[in-house]
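[09:14] KT: can someone run the structure on this one? pasting the chain below
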Amino acid sequence: MARTNPLTIFLLCLHLVLGQNYSTNIESTPTILNTTTEPTPVTYEYVIRLIFGLENEKVSTFLLDTIFNNSNNITTTDIISLYSLDYLTLSSTNDILKELHYKPSKALSIDGLEKYLSDFGIDFKDLYKAVFITHLKLTGFPLRNFFIDLGVNIEDFANAIYFGEPDPFEVFKKGNFSEKNLDTALEKLSKTKDDLFEACKIEILNNVRSKSTEEFLNILKTHNFDRVEAMNLWKYLELDLESVERVTVFADLLDQIKFNLENTSYLGILSANKVAINKEIYKNIKEKMELSKIFAQSIYDNTTVELKEEKPYYENIVTLSLETDNFTTFIQVATTNKDLEHCQIITLENDTLISQYVEKVTNKNDTLEVSREDFNITSLIPGSPLICDNKVYGLAKEINNDEIVFDAFIVDSGAINIVFSPFLFVCLFVILLFIYNCDIL
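[09:31] RB: done, structure tokens below
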């Protein structure tokens, strides 16, 4: 009995494995097809449109970059409103400081107050009047006794306030500001530390509002508060798109972004649980994807599925994977090295899918072209598929003077990989067993 060449067995197995792999995936090598025409389905549920949804984390990065680059005329008032600093309490401020790895006992202290006065160029006398007289409405003996209870030399302090000598803050900071002492002094006034914090907060934010954004950011940077810390604060406060839209300048920025996202139309096709789009379309939407997620949406029932980027397989076509299996209608991808006849172009007009019959399609290797003379639809959306024999051969790329150009599904030679499936391992085992038996014989 003649022996079978092991190489023959191996090549046969390899052929079966590759053939099996190509026949079950969108990444399959397209077969060369004839141009026999079959009726195109009445519906085209495999045609989808691309839509975009703003992604909170990407928007936060964009807006913080905008703030720290001091662009779009953003003011300190806008920043205060974005982070809702007007609504901070003593308790929430303590929590935020801990979250950002600042010590509340240091920030909310006499040393912290001195640093604030220095950073913002504030005269303590002005702060004293605003906090105690204007906001807490303390005057006369109640205010005098409050400072006495804090251990402040009231005569020196009064002279400093009225005559400017000595420095009022130098007299003030010699007092006893322990938590117990402060609570006792405030209790005699029927006040709490929360009341004192609120009065200080109002005045501090007023001073922040008086600064330019650049001045304010420079002050923050001296305390190591940068974009990273701003993002950490954003996440801690759980700011979202609704928070952003409450501030006019940021709402306007988002409206502009949304307009840019919604002001373009792109189509793609569903094939083997993936979405295929033109590479040119992909280049155009990359900028949009910096701020948003990309979705495939059914034109029939608005079913929407998020898409994810994946490894390139075609030269002029990009495939995106579907995150869920909500879509059930797909179309087969194909290619040819010949001209095609009796095809259809499917596109969207007035939010309705329509088809245009074309007599002849000219093959230009990596593109397919249709004469504009044979095409009477008023507009063509990029990504509109070219359908022949109920298979998609190309996606609309552009309209030039005389031709409508479609990108063909040409496999990138660098994307073809041998897949070692279990079947291949079985084949290799059979070959080794065969060689072993031959040696024994």
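[09:33] KT: thanks! The CA atoms of residues 250 and 256 lie 10 Å apart.
[09:34] RB: yep, looked fine to me
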